[in-house]
Specification:
369 residues, 9-stranded mixed β-sheet, 7-stranded antiparallel β-sheet, 21% helix
Amino acid sequence: MSSLTVRVPEELSARVPVEQRGPGLDRDGVRLLVSRGTEVSHHGFAELPGLLRAGDLLVVNTSPTLAAAVDGRVGHARVVVHFSTRGDDGRWAVELREPDGRGTTRARAEAAEVADGPRARAQGVGARGCGGPAGTKVRLPGGARLVLEEPLSARGDRLWWARVSGVEVPALLREHGRPIRYSYTDRDQPLSVYQTVFALPYADGTGSAEMPSAARPFTARLVAELVSRGVQFAPVTLHTGVASAESHEPPYPERFAVPEASARLINAVRAGDGRVVAVGTTAVRAVESAAGPDGVVRARAGWTDLVVTPERGVRVVEGLLTGLHEPEASHLLMLEAVAGPAAIDRGYEAAVGGRYLWHEFGDVHLLLP
């Protein structure tokens, strides 16, 4: 866990997207904190083209966000299924959560505290919460059925491999899903709010359970300005799974791809005077998974279980554009690997002092060498 000790007041959670906070605002209306080592400066995100230089390379994640939350029932109990990751065998890793009465959900451990005695336990809600044991059946909209088969990992039983019958999951999500939402936001938003300008559709219907949110402030106009100033873009893919909102677990294995053209471009920039700046922790995970011990990036696709820590370090990425993470979040270890703990400590102190906003609709942080 990161050594960061800053406390983030609850009122600094971004509850709606910036473009809904006032007239005339666009996605690039968020604030941008820039850290160069322990030196910080304050900007608007629209100033990004002036903070980068010709020859720099932005590595961007093209994974689209899925409408990954679907209502269901276990017996008479209402549950919400968060679809996380599609496996090679057609199963999906899922998390079962309980509605909290406010339009969002609570984790199974919290659900157990309000479970309704023997009846709730018979429905699979009691001491084990909303998920498990193996064989638990969930009724889904449109006559679909989901059966939990086994935990995704020996690490815990938050995520389960499940098999869905009666419908293909991508069709189920398109018809009955909604974006995953957490309690710090005010209301449900349309899926378009969660798509970045870099998102591409995938023929097999795969994507990210949660938005690759560091890229959300980019607009087509801003991308065009960056290109006109000589900043390049390298697309990669990492389909991110359902985050551990309560316990801040490290990420599970996720699907990724670094295409040949992007690998060549990254290597060329590193051999020259440009800087490789990842847009989001997902882009870091993808690129570093494709890098050998020699720092050369090679085209790769498949699954990555890489967790970037200060001990492992980074081989390719020199800068990072990312959102502001909770002090307990495992992502902070990656930030410390890129910039060092002193830079993160100083940056987060400045972000709290400057009243920056947190989470996926919040402000962003640019870490530069």
